[in-house]
Amino acid sequence: MNKGLTFGAGLGIGTIVMYVLDPDRGKRRRALLRDKISSATKKAGQGIEITARDFRNRAQGLAASIKSRFTSAETDDAVLIDRVRSKLGRIVSHPKAIVVASENANVTLSGPILEAEVDKLLNCVKQIEGVNEVANNLEVHKEAGNHPALQGGRERQGYQFEFLKENWSPAARFVASAAGASLAVYGGVRRDALGAGFGAAGLLLLTRGITNTEIKRLAGLDDGGENVGEDTRPNRDASSLESLLAQGTATM
After folding, report:
1. How many Å apart are CA 25 and CA 240, to the nearest integer?
2. Which tens digit of pLDDT belongs to each residue from 49-69?
3. Nearest to 98 by CA among 50, 134, 58, 57
4. CATH value of 77-159 in 3.30.1340.30, 3.40.50.1240, 3.20.20.210, 3.30.428.70
């Protein structure tokens, strides 16, 4: 076994033992460590349950979609209206202003809408499963003006690829974390400049998946000085442990 690795491992273990068995503050540190482990275990269990549920729902949705493509049964108009309305909130800035009607799977859209959103809405509705034709009876406005139904609201981004969103779903976070961990391990095995790049990218992707925080925010996490003047004593032990572990790891 590599002597440097052995020395680093021994130093790390010794540092941890000294930390938790310190005569003066060891009891408090052990309690803090126990609480953190308990909290992490609970959160991990909840995360696994949420991720599993997300995967299950996505699989059921995919199965239902595939099944419907091989069946010729006509979709009920009420169901079709619900499907269309469920998409409006992602496409138009004033979804409540849009009136949706359906007859024999032929959908009619009416109501006031901003000009910039018309094409996106029509294209979206045409792609909804079960829709045969789309009739455009929309009242188009270049600007909201004083129209009561077009006041307020916010611009919609439409459908985005999952990994381009700010907040990832549990399934996406799991996939990203697994991919990041694999990439980091692969980079470590290569032991060259390219491997270092792979490793750094993997760690960044792993952190993105675990924290669900945008990469640009990960690069500069800062509380903006909100905690200036606050007593940081309760967190001193935790930060001390992280520093000691980092020093031990650096010698490996």
Report:
1. 12
2. 777 777 777 777 677 667 666
3. 134
4. 3.30.1340.30
